[in-house]
Amino acid sequence: MEKNESRIRNLRQKMVELGLDAIYITSAENHLYVTGFDNPDGYVFLTQNNAFMFADPRYIEAAKAEASPLCTPLEKPDLAKIVNDEGIKVVGYEDRRLTCSGFERLKSTLGDKIEYKGIGDVLTEIRSFKTRDEIENIIAAQRISEGAFHHICKVLNYDMTEIEVAAELEYYMKKHGSSKPSFDTICVSGSASSRPHGVPRPVKLEKGFLTMDYGAMVNGYHSDMTRTVVIGKADEDMKRLYNTVLKAQLEAEAAVREGVRNRDVDGIARNIIYSAGYEGKFGHGLGHGVGLEIHELPVLNSRVDENMTLKTGQVVTVEPGIYIEGLYGCRIEDMMLVTENGGELLTDCPKELIEL
């Protein structure tokens, strides 16, 4: 079955549940999810009878060739006519994505007789459950990322700058099938490794921890991994810190399965880190969903609703870290698929302490 058929069918069923006659889809990720075509400047108007996809002259030819046959590409949309022809009274919109000016344009186009309803996280919640083909795309992207890690460990030298290491990772991924990096590559060494989202600097690698957080993209799907290595030799304090992070990750990963509370998985890693004497040094959540966005539902942190549990088909990262300001930091990150019987590790990359 054409994959977009089931996606559109599910959305139409959700429209019935929410009392919607149409959904106005504006975010690039949800556009790709519904149509199968990547157009960052397009939008979709989904009704119970049609899926209209609007593309300007830059994209219209590609849209006709590449989008799902269930979607009708239009270069000059007439939303008001579509609404009138199909008797649409209630339109849902992405209230967490659409800008205020975009919403005002929509209302001026369709008029005041239409009722507008924000749909919140409806689409992102649906997207949090991955089909087999989505998982395969994520795994393909992850394998490219793993290849980049093995490559950088071979070519890395003390004369390289953080920016050069980041560029080498991205170049390798691009050469091996990634459409682009999942996000701006994080590559920080020495004292800067205490910055969880530090920006690569034009300075030679400092001795100590080197944290590399990066990912590839395949068919719109992201991968996400972090590995921390040591430039030079690790002292006993560094080894203890690294092994604490690794223990926290392994025990949290062992807890991932259908029905486990999201905040409890975070708590397992956090308790290990805090009990080892690093209270307050793990400042971010344990993980997040990965798919068409690098950060999407579900989330693993201590602030999530206490009734939220992991569900089969979700993909999450498990990425504990310890960061000591001005000294150094370490993070290790894998991706996992949630199943009824446990978590399936999607990352296949060494994580023992490596000294270079």
Walk me through this protein's architecture.
The protein is α+β, with helices and mostly antiparallel strands. The chain has two domains: 3-127, 3-Layer(aba) Sandwich (Creatine Amidinohydrolase, Chain A, domain 1); 132-345, Creatinase/methionine aminopeptidase superfamily (Creatine Amidinohydrolase), CATH 3.90.230.10. It is built from ten helices and 18 strands. The strands form six sheets. Strands 4-3-2-1-5-6 form a six-stranded mixed sheet. Strand 12 and strand 13 form a beta hairpin. It is elongated and about 70 Å long. It starts with a helix and ends in an 11-residue tail after the last strand. 42% of the residues are buried. The model has no long low-confidence stretch (mean pLDDT 96).
Question: Topology, pairings included?
Answer:
Layout: H1 3-18, E1 22-25, H2 28-35, E2 43-47, E3 51-54, H3 60-66, E4 72-74, H4 79-85, E5 90-93, H5 100-110, E6 115-118, H6 122-127, H7 132-155, H8 162-175, E7 186-189, E8 208-214, E9 217-218, E10 221-222, E11 225-231, H9 236-255, H10 262-275, E12 287-289, E13 296-300, E14 315-318, E15 321-324, E16 328-331, E17 334-339, E18 342-345
Parallel strand pairs: 1-5, 3-4, 5-6
Antiparallel strand pairs: 1-2, 2-3, 7-8, 8-11, 9-10, 12-13, 14-17, 15-16, 17-18
Helix pairs in contact: 7-8, 9-10
Main beta-sheet strand count, sense and barrel state: 6 strands, mixed
Q: What's the number of extended β-strand segments? A: 18
> How many structural domains are formed by the residues?
2
CATH topology of the largest domain: Creatine Amidinohydrolase
CATH evolutionary superfamily of the largest domain = Creatinase/methionine aminopeptidase superfamily
Low-pLDDT segments: none
Structural class: alpha+beta
Q: Which class of the largest domain in CATH terms?
A: Alpha Beta
Number of helices: 10
Q: Which CATH architecture of the largest domain would you pick? A: Alpha-Beta Complex
Give the helix proportion (percent range): 25-40%
